[in-house]
Amino acid sequence: MLDPKRLQALQAVATTGSVREAATQLGYSSSAISQQIAALEVDSGSVLLEPAGRGVRLTPAGELLARHATRIFEQLAQAESELMALNAGQLGSLRLASFASAGAELVPPALAQLHARLPGLDVTLRSEVPEEALALLRRGLIDVAVIEVHDEVGGDGLVYTPLLTDVYRIVLPRGHRLAKRRTVALADAAGETWIRLGNHIGCCRRNTLAAFDRAGFTPTFVIEADEFWPAQGFVAAGMGLALLPSLALGVIRSDVVTRPLRPDAAPSRDVYAVTRPALSDTTAVKTAVAALVDAAQRDVVA
User: Fold this and answer.
1) Which family does it belong to (predicted)?
2) In this structure, are 98 and 83 located in the same domain?
């Protein structure tokens, strides 16, 4: 492979028209430039300069190589400029994945803030369950994952930033006897029927069932809702009550009400932003995570 420093010497001679001027331009001695070009002639197997009066001129091989050298250094300068823009978050892309309810309530204001700060950044968002989001993150297919967690995190080589604790609330028909209370004790709903959430699997389901267990009863489920919004519909129709996370209650039907559970009985889930160590200090990821933290704080206050 041809040495870039030797190409630079040849390109300088082509630009300035002399070895002496090339040396002045690059800050070397004339003999150093001559040595660089002599070495390049050996590398290329071609004569690159020939005498011309008291100076030198490029041979056809030298002119060809000088033209390529010019394009190479222009491309390097462009790469350097784009890399600076990328590191500053002014260029490039950011790929996020989030679980559904965070993607609907928490992520949009964060991305609006991110766009205001880094308008040149191309941002994409996909909806994924936490396990799949972490798998995509480890494979390098996304840059930031917003996940729900019910256990301790860390120890897996990823960088976790806590966003908020999403506390579940009880959803009641508007005329229900418990709707008059500001806070509901889950034990007071022991005789009610309940809506099971089909999208609650694994830790989510164990978490809510544990809350019923702490309240001293086993719930009677009469129907299963695949998503949070249909669950509100079943509650409104009087089929049963539901426990839904606060992030899933950004839009509430007019014929249902939500009430907080007593703190000792309320199930919850922790929400984190996760990235890889190699990305955690990049401008795009740092700005995105900071925007998610800000959005989470506003959500908690609200």
Assistant:
1) Belongs to the LysR transcriptional regulatory family.
2) no
Put simply, whether the predicted model's pTM sits higher than 0.85 gets the answer no
Note down the domain range covering 221.
Answer: 165-268
* Number of structural domains the chain divides into: 3
To 10 degrees, the CA torsion angle through 189, 193, 195, 196?
A: 90
Q: How many CB atoms lie within 10 A of CB 198?
A: 14
Q: Tokens 């994952």 belong to which residue?
A: 145
Report strand pairing: 256-260 vs 159-173. antiparallel
Average pLDDT of the residues in 92-113: 92
pLDDT score of 90: 61
Q: List, for residues 219-248, the tens digit of each pLDDT value.
A: 999 999 988 999 999 999 999 999 999 999
> Please, how many CA atoms are within 13 Å of residue 281, restricted to the half-sphere of its CB?
2
Q: Measure the CA–CA gap between 284 and 37, rounded to whole angstroms.
A: 43
